[in-house]
Amino acid sequence: MTLKERISKATRGQWIGFAAWSLLWTLFSIWYGSAWLLLLIILFFDIYITKYVPWTFWKKSKNSAFRKVMEWVDAIIFALVAVYFINTFFFQNYQIPSSSLEKSLLVGDFLAVSKLSYGPRAPMTPLSFPLAQHTMPVVGGKSYIEKPQWKYRRLKGFGNVQRNDIVVFNFPAGDTVALNMQAVDFYTLAKYNPNGSAGIRADKRTYGEVIWRPVDRRENYVKRCIGLPGETIQMKNDTVYIDGKIVPHAKMAQHNYYIQTDGTVIASSVFEDLGISKSDYLGVDNFGQPVPKYQDLTNVDSLSAVQLGLKQHNGSFGKLYGPMPMTDEMVEKMKAKPFVLVIIKEKEQPGAGYYYPLDYETGWTRDTYGPLWIPKKGATITFDKDVDFKVAAYERCIKNYEGNDFAYRNGKVYINGQQADSYTFAMDYYFMMGDNRHNSADSRVWGFVPEDHIVGQPILIWLSLDKDKEWFHGKIRWKRLFRSAKR
Fold it and tell me: Distances from the Cα of 14 to the Cαs of 21, 69, 169, 261, 305, in angstroms?
């Protein structure tokens, strides 16, 4: 059959199908910015009109079992392609794994993440299995092939990341991973190891194999954007300052507090009514049974107790609960309980933990941090003073995220083999923090989030499951279903 005959035999429905797909694909090609994609219209023309390739050859088979199997294969392939396309360019599912954003987003919330909010990234690791971030379900192993790696490019979206946006992003410090200890980032592990990163790589029995992951295959995190490119962030006594101006806490921000009672054991219902998770107010005894987390202060030294801000009641200091995370509103409600004597915010002493930049002694804590300048695309830093600090703060940006060779010897900086007195950043960076300020590993610990790591913005909670409840006793948080996740 000639081409002319094939075209003349096409029905109106076939032409409509071809026209619809061609129009949609043309619009997508314009959005993507690649004329090469338009070549696929030839494929649509053959599928709908000319049919030189027998795309549905199996439908003509006389073997019913073969037809049935091929129907399933056809449906599965179509579903995988559709899911890959939707996940890459439009929407992605994300489950809240930790309490770092409570009470804004809760553990067990399932989110619809919009890639359109900030514009989707063009695929960077194109050969990957749909719905698997970096590890194959059930069988294990990598869910992607590292090569080819395509350069970062972001399509046009509805806007840019703004302060106080809740953002899903690939974990920047997840570029290098010790497979047996994935819950802690490699750079923090190296800081705690006496032999640094070399000690981790040498001890495979403890840490497992150390691997590198491409940008878009790194673990997904969700935090609130606090600092924008080119700004200077600082924290003083739990208060955030941007360029010297106070930034109000998020409405649902939490901090850790100690609760002193007159000796009363606080009922579980009191904590539950306030929305405090069981893991925050219950511990486990030697027999594995849940017990309330409190200290009996009956025989505590009076001078030490008073210095800590505790109060005495009828000759006793009662019981001390905590630390546990609470919002300002929760604190006020707890203070109103007649058995509560005092509530004290937990303070962290300098040196109690490691904070970014890890390789420079700053004396910073989770509550008193900075000042730290956030890199901006096109902005230049000079290596004329405070060089040790600048190297510690920005080496990872220059080397790991922007792909330059970097060396620091005898007080001199070398970039790509040449001594450098300055460096101009190629990307924007962001400073992310959790609302659960005292229980969040965020930019204070692992540093800046580069623009090429931004995934999207949560827009909707489509399901919410309470880990502390049973299925027929409040497991599903009905009131949270289909609520906005952009708060």
Answer: 11, 26, 42, 76, 83
Side chain identity at residue 229, one-letter code: P
List 233's β-bridge partners, or say none: 242, 372
What is the SS3 string spanning 342-374? EEEECCCCCCCCCCCCCCCCCCCCCCCEEEEEC
Given a contact cutoff of 8 angstroms between Cβ atoms, the answer to whether 25 and 40 are in contact is yes
**Rounded-to-integer distance, Cα 142 and Cα 213, Å:** 10
Which stretches of 240-355 are DSSP H helices?
Answer: 268-274, 278-281, 302-307, 328-335
Say which amino acid occupies 363.
G
Alpha carbon distance 448, 362 (integer Å):
17
**Token pair of 285 as six digits:** 């005894």
Amino acid at 185: D
Give me the mean pLDDT over the 286-303 stretch: 83
Q: Going by C-beta distance under 8 Å and a sequence separation of 6 or more, which residues neighbour residue 123?
A: 88, 150, 216
Cα radius of gyration rounded to whole Å, the chain: 28
Pair of tokens at residue 280: 């925050």
**Spatial distance between the Cα atoms of 253 and 72, rounded to a whole number of angstroms:** 49
Tell me which range, 223-237, 295-309, 342-356, is most confidently predicted by mean pLDDT. Answer: 223-237
Write down the pLDDT at residue 407. 95
> Does the predicted model carry a pTM greater than 0.85?
yes
- Tokens, residue 408: 């620091």
Token readout for 314 is 């009828």
**Which tops the pLDDT comparison, 107 or 115?**
115
